Amino acid sequence: MRFSLLTLGLAGLAAAKPKCTGLNAAIRAQGKEHVGSALTLRDEPLENAILESDLEIGAVTPENALKWAYTEPARGAFEWADADRHVNWAVEHGKDLRCHALVWHSQLAPWVSEGGFDNATLIQIMEDHINGVAGRYKGKCTHWDVVNEALEEDGSYRKSVFYNTIGEAYIPIAFALAAKADPHARLWYNDYNLEYNEAKTAAAARIVKLVQSYGVRIDGVGLQGHLVVEETPTQSVATPDQNTLEGALRQFTDLEVDVEYTEIDIRMNTPATPAKLEEQARQYERVLASCMSNDRCIGVTLWGISDKYSWIPYTFDGEGAALAWDDEYNKKPAYKGILRGITSA
Prior knowledge:
The protein is of the alpha/beta class. It has helices at residues 2-16, 23-29, 45-52, 68-71, 81-92, 110-113, 119-136, 161-166, 170-181, 199-213, 242-253, 274-292, 312-315, 333-342; strands at 34-39, 59-62, 96-104, 143-148, 186-191, 220-223, 226-228, 258-269, 297-302, 319-320. Helix 9 (170-181) packs across helix 10.
């Protein structure tokens, strides 16, 4: 009898002890699809262990490998080695695969931006590129960022070669071509600074309605989530409050499309301090909580695993410490903030 009581007591303690979990396992337990990460394959065992863990990461977005400059550096001359390597890694590891990005003004092959093509020729170039890339990975990409960053901060269209030559119709044309090239992939518009629920957010909602008005499928809007803990030289406004974040998501879900935070990092002026890291954790928490509050927010993707390889310090001098693991792959307070946000539902 004593043994039985002792056994029961130990069993009770075991039941009361929180189960070990990870970010992806936690969000899936709440009915969402994934926590994902940007993917750049490198010889980094600690990073690879996190990426491979289904408890932590359930989706990947190739950070650069699928962009136009690398897949079609010369007209009709596709280069597949790096793209194949990233796509095959995702498939072999059973990850959702967010493919990124078919039509974007940046990291665009110079022959496109400097070619001086007329309307019909540029549409044909878009068609050939989308057929080539999306067609090659048909059935492997679960999502495609079809058009990326088509807007300026004031909500006007970015004066890219595509807009200047074709006009706003290039956007629904790109979605129609992508839907034909890969009928099963979910098709997304993706942009930054949509989280603030201002003019750019409203303009992105107009893009959704534009594509829909052509009778073309658009499945979701990606809010990139490149945010800041505090005012920095490159961003004057810190991460919005939760009501603002939730309102931004509703701008799109009210149009019957899904949403995801697709490239989250929350940077700060460096060096980091304990106070800044705790504030960063609170901001991650409310970003995740805003997603959890919306039935059509399918999940989140972090723009990398470790601060060691984040793009932020290389792009924004004096800024960094933006991710959930530090340079040594230790979990930062941000990691716990993400978990708190997930379990807030």
